[in-house]
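Reply to thread "Modeling small-molecule complexes from scratch"

Following up on the discussion above, here's a worked example others can learn from. I took a protein sequence and the SMILES for magnesium ion and predicted the complex. Inputs first:
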Amino acid sequence: MLEARGVTVERRGRKLLDEVYVTMPAGRITSIVGPNGAGKSTLIKVLAGEIKPTQGEALIEGRNLRTFSAMELATRRAIVPQSTTLSFPFMVIEVVKLGASVPGFDQNQDYSNRIAEDALCDVGLEDFRNRLYAELSGGERQRVHIARALCQLNAALRRRSHTAALLLDEPTSSLDLAHQSLVLGEAREQAAEGRAVVVVLHDLNLAAAWSDEIVLMSQGRIAARGSPEAVFQDELLSTVFGCQIRANRVPAPGVPYMLPHFLRTEPPGLGRRHTLNCSKAPPMGYAESKMHVPLQRD
Ligand SMILES: Nc1ncnc2c1ncn2[C@@H]1O[C@H](COP(=O)(O)OP(=O)(O)OP(=O)(O)O)[C@@H](O)[C@H]1O
Ligand SMILES: [Mg+2]
């Protein structure tokens, strides 16, 4: 389990997180959602031990993260940040194997190779092992980093440590539909193995479909927390995101799905900026019917 107890993070006199109390239970997928700048990445970095809170504490399995060495932390959690830069001409398999090359981990090459190959398979990149990382597409790169984290989880197992948590910051932002499902299915498997899985997502529909718990953030605070059914409510979402959002329900099992209700005040045209008016709720069914209308040019 991951926990933030009264966590405040201040930078240049500004509170990026403001007394955040939250728990992310083992065996479940918790999705953090919220607008740009709400503090999602900051929270995930605090929970991963990458940022120390200005006040309060972050804990993993009841122990304050400040008391862990870097190696101990690497056996307890794996994190995929929102963005990563790699400047060297690494091959894909080398990047994935970085997950197993934590100082203090068993450096058995055969084992490292095997778990790295397995992790590549898990993200659908089994044919990419000898490709240059720098020559991959955005979505392929994103999956390489997820494979690196999966490799780390398995490498820790070899030390007889069960990594308690997997933290993924926008892991699906560059992925097509099939790979979104593949990656979140992998997250589900990690939760089924008893890990606390924390995922930052901007796609509320993915969050609704895959999460056990939702943490909705706004301006450095937790605006709501609970099941997707409890958190995904029209008024709450519309207020937090600052535009009209309607949470609908599919028949059974009633998973919520969200449609932003944008009103165009003028038709899209060449060289003309699209104006989106988010201040008024359109009549029911507006967005659904608009979705099938081809864009027109004037
Ligand atoms: N090191 C820093 N110094 C000052 N301000 C920072 C720092 N890091 C982040 N911030 C600010 O803190 C706020 C929260 O940032 P954070 O990256 O956590 O947002 P986020 O919810 O992940 O947003 P996004 O959806 O855009 O990724 C933002 O307003 C950001 O500009
Ligand atoms: Mg972020």
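What I'd highlight from this example: The two ends are 55 Å apart (CA to CA). Residues 33 and 216 are 5 Å apart (CA to CA). Questions welcome below.
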